[in-house]
Amino acid sequence: MSSFSRKSPWLWVPSLYLTEGIPYIVIIAVSVIMYKKLGVSNSDIGLYTSLLYLPWVIKPIWSPVVDLFGTKRKWFLSMQLILSLVFFGVGLTTAGNQFFFITLAFFWMGAFASATNDIASDGMYLIALKPEQQSFFVGLRGTFFRIGMITGQGLIVMIAGYLETSLGDTTKAWSYTMTTVALLMLLLTLINSLTTPNVEEETTRTHTNDAGFGKVFSTFFTKKNIGISLAFVLIYRLGESQLVKMASPFLLEDRQTGGLGLSTSEVGFLYGTIGVIALLLGGILGGIAISRQGLGKWMIPMALSLNLPNLLYIGLAHFQPENILFAGTVVVIEQFGYGFGFAAYMIFLIYLAEGLFKTSHYALATGFMAMGMMLPGMASGYIQEWLGYTGFFIWVGVAMIPALVIAASVKYPREFGKKIE
Q1: Distance (Å, rounded) from C-alpha 80 to C-alpha 73?
Q2: At what angle do helices 295-307 and 238-252 cross, to 10 degrees?
Q3: List of residues 6+ apart from 252 with CB closer than 8 A
């Protein structure tokens, strides 16, 4: 059997990356909204939900196991089933006296399962698609990952908001919402079992067995220009790593304490409707642009696209407009900019994983990506409480400077990602 999939990527790439995005965003971001609505402080939210990034940071430690044993397909289907059980657990325990730490424990289990699901899913993408297909579909892949994220921040949050209003009980509303997430994950697991190709690159697995864990790691850290490459992975999203933790609390916070006072449903609507359209457009255009002209042509424009929209939050925090149209406009611009700018980041991670141990090396690269989100995010709540929302968003804007400097300095083939005619 050929190591490349005979099934069309249009059939399985969307559902596979949708199933990556949903559990990730529920664990990392929807948990922020849930805890905010259940009365947890911003400092605790920022610290403890950022620590949930840790499994994504350290996943390279066990990523070779995914290469060594079983198939990528068996791994991600198993992890998706476990995630369904985890969200059932969260739904059953939101009403307890110690709900914060019990639900955090479930989210921790879910984070490890989700990180392992990512390793296996990304491995499938790398071994089942030809290099030119990887470049072309990176926009679709990133877009459906982000649609999964928007499904969490949008549709799922809207469901929670509707239930808060109709039930008049915030705790029960979030219990039912997390049970809904569990059922959605079960459905997606079934879809992936039917659509994903049953391929495995035996050559890679044989070499990985022969090499052992040590060589898998050593060959990654001896790559050319690895120091500046890892600096890029850590710093490119320095501003976003802080913004993503405090954007939803800012939109939900009472106006008297510096927020916009939006309801849970309104926040879900902004991210789940107009945000999706902007994200789709940005992500698809980003992938197409790189596939036509290469990464070198688009690195700086995409870095600007990712970072500049964050400055608009300064205006929202300073003027606190009452019309939701202003917040909606910022969300549209920010989501489009993120979708377009993130394409360069994903293509660079694929470049960094080039070589024999693609799955393990890609896991290492995304582990550093998660570290770049975790460490600044842990401090974000404390910084916001110290500076206020306006000062915090100014700080996020300042964080754009090192991101642009490293984007201009990192080394890579300028034609990388360009479709071969």
Answers
A1: 11
A2: 30
A3: 33, 36, 37, 259, 260, 261, 262, 263, 264, 267
pLDDT at 200 over 80: no
Tens-place pLDDT, residues 313-346: 999 999 999 999 999 999 899 989 988 998 899 8
Q: Which two tokens stand for residue 391?
A: 């000062």
Token duo for residue 305: 């696209």
Encoded amino acid at 229, one letter: S
Number of residues that this document lists for the chain: 421
d(CA 305, CA 299): 10
Count CB atoms within 10 A of the CB of residue 319: 10
Cα separations in angstroms, 400 against 138, 307, 374: 24, 6, 17
Pairwise CA distance, residues 184 & 120, whole Å = 20
- Helices marked H in 308-399 — which ranges? 312-319, 324-352, 358-398
Give the three-state DSSP class for 223: coil
| Cα gap 189→26, rounded to integer Å | 16
Angle at 22 between CA 19 and CA 28, to 5 degrees: 135
DSSP letter string, 29-79: IIHHHHHHHTT--HHHHHHHHHHTTHHHHHGGGTHHHHHHSS-HHHHHHHH
Q: Give the separation between CA 204 and CA 219, rounded to whole angstroms.
A: 14
DSSP 129: S
Concatenated DSSP letters of 228-292: HHHHHHHHTTHHHHHHHHHHHHHHHS-GGGTS----HHHHHHHHHTHHHHHHHHHHHHHHHHHHH
Q: Is this structure's pTM higher than 0.85?
A: no
Q: Calculate the CA 21 to chain-centre distance.
A: 6
Q: How many angstroms separate the CA atoms of 346 and 96, rounded? A: 40
